Structure formats: C-alpha cells, structure tokens
Amino acid sequence: MDENLLVCAVLETHVKNRKLQKIGDNIFGNWNWITNMNQCDKGCRIMIGWHSDEVSVTIIHSAKQSILCKIESVDGSVTIFCSFVYAANSGIERRMLWKDLNIYKRIVGNGYWVLLEDFNVTLNPNEHSAGGSYMTSDMTEFKDCVNQVEIEDISSNGLFYTWTKNLHKVRAGDYAGVLKKLDRSMGNEEVKRKATKPPYSSATFGV
User: Fold this and answer.
1) What are phi and psi of 189, to 5 degrees?
2) pLDDT by residue (tens digit) across 66-100?
3) Rounded distance between C-alpha atoms, residue 81 and residue 113, angstroms
4) Whole-structure pTM value
5) Above 90 in pLDDT, residue 4?
6) The domain 63-205: what is its CATH number?
7) Where are the domains of the chain?
C-alpha cells in the first residue's frame, strides 16, 4: 500500500464468499477491512480497507450498492463521512440507491460528507462521447437525487471520461468507440464551504 494512503475502496470485485478472506488479506495486508458481501447476491461489490494505526472507520450503513462510514483520525482532529458507491446497471435497481443516499443525507446532517462512486449513469448529456442534447429517464432520476441530497462534484483532475468497454484499445490510442463519465467524486455543502481548509477533498481520474 502507498505509505500516504490511509483508506482504500475496491469496487466491482465480484469476489465470491469462499475466496473473500484470502483476496481481502492479499489486497489490504495488515490493514483492517470490511465488505458488503452480506448484502450481495452475485459476489462482493464493495471492499473498504484502512490503516488502523492512523484512522478509525465506523460502518454506519451497508447496502448492496453503497456503504456509508465515518472516518476519524486517531488523534480526533479530523472526522468525515464517506459513502463508497457502486451502482447497479439497472435504472430500476438504482432507485434503491437514490433512496439510500437520501437517508444518508439525513444521517450526516451538517457533517463533512464525500461520496466516491461509480454511478453507472451519466449526470449530463455532455458526459457521453457521442454527445447529445437530451436527458434519459435514468439521468433525470440521478439528477433529481443529486439535487435532493444537495451534493456536487468536488475538485478533480485527470481524465474526463472514466469508462469504456475496450480499455486496452484506448491505451493503444486506436479506439474511437463510446466513452462515458460514470465515476465521480462528490461532496455536500460542508465540503464546498471548507474547500480551502483541511480536510482537503480532490479527485484524480486516470487509466
């Protein structure tokens, strides 16, 4: 693990329960780690690991598509809420995620809340390489949720599009297929208010 990394999430693992312990130990080493395996029916979707000498992580709610946790530095100087999200491919299934995020908003209240996620749906028409000027019903439901829970993208750098079916072709520079922005980092008003004060929140997207 990177010596500066204190909390790490792995999404879309699809690891089966019988292999979970071995793979989790291989990934996180001597870190503490948890998963949402108990809420999954086709393999684990979210794994979270943390350096327990530096931070404590309390799981507040675990669901099939998300985990809400409270992260605190061991000296008590920093406390944040963090949601790790791996949304379902189905728009109908994602409706449960939108409900969960509304619940999380009420739990967090005025606390510092960041969301690190693969939403599996774009928020705006320009987040699709083919362009477009209309909102699909799935996009509209996503945007409605974002407005309801009052979150927005936080500062980021790197790639704009974060998903493609043929990553190896993109790396080779010979791919002209569909690209989408499905992964994003978001925060609530408290994150925005403290943009120039610690804890700082920023995202980097790369291939």
Assistant:
1) -60, -35
2) 999 999 999 999 999 999 999 999 999 999 999 99
3) 5
4) 0.86
5) no
6) 3.60.10.10
7) 63-205
